[in-house]
Design goal:
Length: 402
């Protein structure tokens, strides 16, 4: 594949060298197009040596090749990393005063921006409007990470991990021939993942075997398809997908609060987390001790809120699509259909679970049941494949609401 790596003038430009390495080692042909400011951080010789291609900044160089047109025309993917507030503004308004901005105008392939800037710059209304404009046009603008910035500053605006950006770009390239590559552009989706833990005492809890891998795959695939993603993550040890806002929670009540807050402007909510049905009525103040000859006191349980049923019955906005998951051990489809009717969601992903099935695995198989009576079987395969099917079905329903 032909990849164009645009590099704008931010301190994170040096991290783009790692992203370039991942592309080239995966067999992609990469042309680096830096801005003049970017060369203050990493020189043209470095980009040329790492890519094996010339690294030019101006339209007046190698004019006989018409680079400002040809580079964009021949690209399968254009990724700008880091993307400064300046380059986002120029791209949103169609400015074309150097080779990179000209290439952005001529490209007809998927375009990914990986922003990196100080928090105040990212949060400024002008930047947010520019990001919204780019997303409406189908560009994928991933959310910056939260962490240490230049100097002592900390906040949202950190360049996402290059490995995570690369994985997202691989997902985009895999769907490059699909006209719906950015079919979730301009949409906000909420995904829950992982398993809740209900504390018995300061060191023990009631939990489950969910790894969060399916929820994280759903979040990653949605970001690759252009969505703004809020991932409500319960007790997961996985790295956050690039471009995803992660809200970390522990218990079912914390997950409920986070989902209810995030769903207010969401186009779709996908409840992939394994939420505990019950919690201890009371948490012991200290560790529960084992006493010789004395049986432990029974643990009184109370029912947790049914979050899926709640958000299905009371949609935060018209046309909001709600997706649930059903982990079953027997009579899988029969129990799934009953749950779909009971919960009132639009789609229910039903899969059989067990010690060696689904939990912790990189693969999954399922049947997606629709409230309209449809059944979509998904054969055994990577969890990202199931995620794509789910988002295909969600996108079709969102499209019918526009």
């Amino acid at each position: 594949m032909n990849v164009v790596l645009g590099v704008s003038g931010g301190i994170a430009a040096y991290k783009a060298c790692e992203l370039l390495r991942r592309f080239t080692e995966s067999g992609h042909r990469v042309r680096v197009v830096p801005t003049a400011s970017a060369l203050h951080f990493v020189g043209a010789a470095t980009w040329a040596a790492l890519s094996g291609q010339p690294a030019e900044t101006e339209v007046w160089e190698t004019v006989h090749e018409v680079p400002h047109v040809r580079i964009g025309q021949n690209a399968d993917l254009l990724v700008v990393a880091p993307a400064t507030a300046d380059i986002l503004a120029k791209a949103a308004h169609g400015n074309a005063n150097d080779l990179l901005t000209n290439t952005l105008l001529t490209a007809r392939c998927p375009v990914v921006f990986a922003p990196a800037m100080h928090t105040e710059m990212w949060e400024h209304p002008a930047t947010q409007e520019n990001v919204a404009t780019l997303r409406r046009r189908g560009a994928i603008v991933i959310e910056p990470a939260v962490g240490r910035l230049t100097g002592a500053d900390t906040g949202k605006g950190r360049f996402p991990d290059p490995e995570q950006i690369f994985e997202l770009c691989q997902r985009v390239l895999a769907r490059g021939a699909d006209a719906g590559v950015a079919d979730l552009a301009g949409r906000h989706v909420v995904v829950s993942a992982g398993g809740t833990r209900e504390p018995l005492d300061p060191v023990r809890f009631l939990g489950n075997r969910s790894s969060g891998r399916q929820g994280y795959a759903l979040a990653q695939v949605a970001a690759a398809r252009g969505a703004r993603v809020t991932l409500v993550s319960a007790n997961v040890s996985l790295p956050a997908p690039a471009g995803v806002d992660v809200v970390r929670v522990g218990t079912a009540l914390e997950l409920r609060e986070a989902v209810l807050n995030a769903r207010q402007d969401a186009d779709a909510v996908v409840m992939a987390a394994a939420v505990a049905d019950f919690r201890p009525a009371a948490m012991a103040a200290g560790k529960i001790k084992k006493k010789d000859g004395v049986e432990p006191a029974p643990v009184e349980l109370v029912r947790n809120p049914d979050i899926l049923a709640e958000i299905s019955a009371d949609r935060a906005r018209a046309g909001q699509v709600v997706v649930g998951f059903a982990a079953e051990t027997d009579e899988v489809l029969a129990n799934g259909r009953a749950k779909l009717a009971r919960k009132g969601c639009d789609l229910l992903v039903v899969n059989e679970v067990g010690v060696d099935k689904t939990f912790g695995s990189e693969h999954n198989e399922a049947v997606v049941l629709g409230a309209d009576g449809t059944e979509t079987p998904v054969p055994h395969g990577p969890k990202s494949a199931l995620a794509d099917v789910v988002w295909d079905l969600v996108a079709a329903r969102l499209g019918s609401e526009t």
